[in-house]
Every structure is written in C-alpha cells, then in structure tokens.
C-alpha cells in the first residue's frame, strides 16, 4: 500500500493518504481555472485510498460551489488547496500540488478542454526561466 504525505503552504495543515490513486487529470473547466487562478487544476483521484488529517484539521474549510458538486477544500490560514472527499465520501480528490511526497502516477489527460483559456496553447514554446526574470 502506498503512503503519501502533504501539507498546505503555511504548514499548519498536514495530512497522510494511505492507498493508491487510480487516475490523475488536468482539468480545464471554468470552475477549476477560477479555483486555481491558472490554466488548469491538477487532481489525483482514488476510490480506495483513505485520508487522515495529521495537524490543522480545524483549519480546513470545504466549499461546494452552488451545491453543484464542484468541491474545493482549502486552508483557512493560507488558502492552499487541500484534499477532499466527494460523492458521499466515495471519491478522494487530491490537488497534486499539495503533496509533499513523490507519486508514481502521471497525468492521464486533459479534461474539459472545451473550457480551456484562450491563452492556453503552445505554452511549451515560450521562453522558460529558472527564476523570476529581471
């Protein structure tokens, strides 16, 4: 059984996941773009893994946009995205960026590309910097 650890940016919320991820998708839907402020969300999914809060569970808030099932959990201190349970607890959704340990699964694909941002194309062709440019 795989074990993963993760945390929020400020470090006040930490968690452990026991089990395997079945899928990993990059979601371009308008909700995920708003949630992340970016081109897409990067989420891991599992129907068998378990989530255990190690510290800061009282700082975790969960938002269900207009009861639509688009659910986001986050740290009240720093706003970082955190794992949450969906579909009546049957689906664990983990934002890949909040993991502190490596995972052996790679994204399986882009989803909701019909909602893709108009500027989100050919990004691998633009200049890349190791740090913030001057």
Give your account of this protein's structure.
With 134 residues, the protein is mostly beta strands. It has a single domain (3-116), classed as Metal Binding Protein, Guanine Nucleotide Exchange Factor, Chain A (Beta Complex). It is built from 1 helix and 11 strands, in the order βββαββββββββ. It has one helix spanning 30-36, and strands spanning 3-7, 14-18, 23-27, 41-46, 50-55, 60-64, 71-75, 81-82, 84-86, 91-95, 109-111. The strands form 3 sheets. Strands 9-10-4-3-11 form a 5-stranded mixed beta sheet. A 3-stranded antiparallel beta sheet has the order 1-2-5, with no helix packed on it. A hairpin with a 5-residue loop joins β7 and β8. The chain is globular and about 40 Å long. It starts with a strand and ends in a 23-residue tail after the last strand. The model has no long low-confidence stretch (mean pLDDT 94).
């Amino acid at each position: 059984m795989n074990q993963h650890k993760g945390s929020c940016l400020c470090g006040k919320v930490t968690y452990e996941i026991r089990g395997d991820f079945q899928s990993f998708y990059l979601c371009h839907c308008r909700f995920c773009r708003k949630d992340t402020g970016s081109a897409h969300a990067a989420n891991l999914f599992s129907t068998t893994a378990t989530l255990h809060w190690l510290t800061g569970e009282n700082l975790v808030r969960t938002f269900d946009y207009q009861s639509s099932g688009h659910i986001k959990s986050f740290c009240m201190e720093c706003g970082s995205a955190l794992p949450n349970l969906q579909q009546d607890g049957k689906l664990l959704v983990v934002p890949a960026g909040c993991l502190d340990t490596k995972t052996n699964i790679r994204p399986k694909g882009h989803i909701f590309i019909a909602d893709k941002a108009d500027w989100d194309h050919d990004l691998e062709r633009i200049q890349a910097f190791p740090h913030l440019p001057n």
